[in-house]
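Researcher: Good morning. I'm working through a list of sequences from a screen, and I'd like to move beyond sequence-only analysis. For each chain I'm collecting a predicted structure so we can compare shapes side by side. This is the next one on the list. No need for commentary yet; just the structure.
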Amino acid sequence: MSSSAERAADGRYEGLRGDDLEARLALPKVAVFDRVGSTLDVAHEIAAAGAPAGTLVLADAQTAGRGRLGRSWRSQPGAGIWLTIIERPVDARALDVLSLRVGLALAPALDAFARDRVQLKWPNDLYVAGHKLAGVLIEARWRDATPEWVAIGVGVNVRTPVGEPNAIGLRDAASRLEVLDTIVAPLRAAASASGVLSEGELASFAGRDLAAGRACLEPIKGRVLGIDANGELRVEAATGAASVRAGSLVLEDLS
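Model: Good morning. Structure tokens for this chain:
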């Protein structure tokens, strides 16, 4: 395996090289970049070249970070944790709920570094005190009906972004390496889980659900009831309870 991305992966992260982080995080491969367009793009390139499950792509900065629905943003140097981890799942059904599972894994791990308890917002965001702390983006590549690999992109604000009043960072003393130490294992565990969300996972989500009981404008107008085992958003609309599989959740008091 010798992709152009791998050959350029010669950066340092808080002074550590990729092999230092491999040993620290117990991962088979860590590709470290000072700056990339998107860690997701790099992950797909090296996954196609045969990167093993558990390969981590880590950048100090991104010039074209990717979000849902084609959104793009700049991820400033040292301001957050911008990563993608490659996994090779065997259960295609679990991909439908993977972004929620990743959020469920990240929230309790980030509690120790956050200014308040971390909440979850369907389908892929983490919030603290009504402000966005982190986001998750899942991209899979398929061979016929089987997932060949999945790239799990995660962005966590360590510092509060300048000029973004709806965003928040971690506590001032939070260390990026300590956060990485805490979140990598739960991320991998979430990726290895099978099937739809369990009753325990649904209860955990309900305990952190930012939106439950609140009025929403999108994806349909109504009042949020929660989520179901398939990861669908449940909304009490004018015509009765409805389930929504995809879209963005816009809350009336956060719009």
